[in-house]
Design a protein that fits this description.
453 residues, alpha/beta, Aspartate Aminotransferase, domain 2, seven-stranded mixed sheet, 14 helices, globular, binds 4'-deoxy-4'-aminopyridoxal-5'-phosphate, pyridoxal phosphate binding
Length: 453
């Protein structure tokens, strides 16, 4: 066990030697000084236990310091080699990962992060199609590297430099905060956002948001494009769920223009949405490429692009090399993630229970505007009041957030205005954990309402 430094010393070093951003995003007024983790739990340096419902941003997919035995010997046998050599962990893993995906998604490129995976996917899409322009949804996050910064559509992550040339955004089909949407719009275990007057079998909101996409096609890009990127359910963007046929219709329009469709499963993959192993399966589409990272190796740095043999062939003309992509330790851990039993079922069961109970709280509290998501990819959008649907201001968000933490539960924040609480725990939580969180969150909301109303 390592010995912790004092809190004061860590903060001093953080101020002097760490990315200054880490001071800004310490996240809490009173920071959490983490000592260790086990499964869904974290302990701070004072021995206080927290239920971790954010999992290092949906990254600890199956549990902190999972007590696996199988891959432990890899540390003694082979720490590193690259894929110019042939070694079992790489091949065991790629075969296993490919088996989780439908045909023709069978060719795998391993990377070290989500940004790197999306960068690579963008490059491959351009080389394969011979086109340049890429479209993403407003409010999305796809990475922070110079190219992926262009895919990302959120001012907080943008810098005034030449980045993301050829990247364009279309309106996010957000059926809660956007101008159009009704109760039948999205696929969620819970519904009732607002009354829906669409005739059966049609969705006016979807038509309008697709209309916005058509406007982007008509005004902002050449007639042929390279790619469309979207998450199946938004992560950093605040668990936004789209109208039911939005991705299906979009994929068709993108393909008509010569583009490939890319599902960013960095947060939604590996069973997190409960109903499906991959988020895109919930939209009844098959992408041309799938990018993944975060939960892929339960917190060990790793990412991947999975694509079709056809796209891979277009990319094989040059040499693509990645030193750590395919690292044996990363592959062994990622293999254990795929072998873990029951995670998707837990996501479905505990996630649906959380969503159902949170929806009851939405009906009780004026400041909960929307509860949405699937499985353990959950968003709770906070509003000034239900009528205006205006975002609850950051100071109020912080107060509830800090109080929730002080009572022993870590959650996340997201959405373009930081107005959405995000719940994406390790997929080993129990119904008792869910009850603990619900009681804590209810108390935090109660405290806030007592103090301010
Ligand atoms: N895509 C999505 C959907 C993400 O949430 C993130 C990270 N928040 C990324 C890509 C980028 O991943 P990384 O931080 O590993 O580069």
């Amino acid at each position: 066990e390592y010995k912790d430094m004092s809190k004061e010393r860590m903060m001093e070093i953080r101020r002097q030697n760490c990315n200054p951003m880490t001071m800004k995003v310490t996240y809490y007024k009173k920071p959490v000084y983490i000592h260790q983790g086990h499964m869904q739990w974290l302990w701070d340096v004072d021995g206080r236990r927290y239920l971790d419902l954010f999992a290092g941003v949906a990254t600890v997919s199956v549990g902190h310091c999972h007590p696996w035995k199988e891959h432990k010997n890899i540390w003694d046998q082979l720490w590193h080699t690259t894929n110019i050599y042939v070694y079992s962990p790489l091949h065991e893993y790629t075969e296993k990962l490919a088996a989780t995906l439908p045909d023709p998604l069978k060719v795998i490129y391993l990377t070290n992060s989500g940004s790197e995976a999306n960068d690579l996917a963008m490059l491959m899409a351009r080389l394969h199609t011979g086109n340049f322009d890429v479209i993403t949804l407003r409010g999305s996050y796809h990475g922070g590297s110079p190219h992926t910064m262009g895919l990302t559509s959120n001012a907080a992550y943008k810098y005034p430099v030449a980045s993301g040339l050829g990247c364009h955004n279309t309106m996010c089909p957000d059926v809660f905060a956007g101008p159009w949407g009704g109760s039948n719009c999205r696929d969620s275990p819970i519904q009732t956002i607002r009354d829906c007057s669409c005739p059966q079998g049609s969705c006016t909101a979807n038509d309008k948001y697709i209309g916005q996409l058509n406007e982007v096609f008509a005004t902002s890009v050449p007639s042929r494009i390279a790619a469309f990127f979207a998450e199946p359910i938004m992560g950093v963007g605040g668990a936004v769920q789209y109208p039911k046929n939005f991705l299906k219709d979009t994929y068709k329009l993108v393909r008509e223009r010569g583009g490939v469709c890319i599902a960013d499963e960095v947060q939604t993959g590996f069973g997190r949405t409960g109903s499906h192993f991959w988020g895109f399966q919930g939209h009844d589409v098959i992408p041309d490429m799938v990018t993944m990272a975060k939960g892929i190796a339960n917190g060990f740095p790793m990412g991947a692009v999975v694509t079709t043999p056809e796209v891979a062939a277009s990319f094989a003309k040059g040499v693509h090399f990645n030193t750590f992509g395919g690292n044996p330790v990363a592959c062994a851990i990622a293999s254990s993630v795929l072998d873990e039993d029951g995670t998707q079922q837990i996501s479905h069961n505990v996630g649906t229970y959380l969503l159902t109970e949170l929806a009851k709280m939405r009906d009780k509290y004026e400041i909960i505007g929307d509860v949405r998501g699937k499985g353990l990819q959950i968003g709770v959008e906070m509003v000034k009041d239900k009528a205006s649907r205006k975002p609850l201001p950051p100071a109020a968000m912080s107060e509830i957030f800090e109080d929730t933490k002080d009572m022993g539960v870590l959650i996340g924040k997201g959405g373009v205005y930081g107005q959405t609480f995000r719940i994406k725990p390790p997929m080993c939580i129990t119904r008792d954990d869910a009850d603990f969180f619900l009681a804590v969150f209810n108390q935090a909301l109660h405290n806030y309402m007592e103090d301010h109303h």
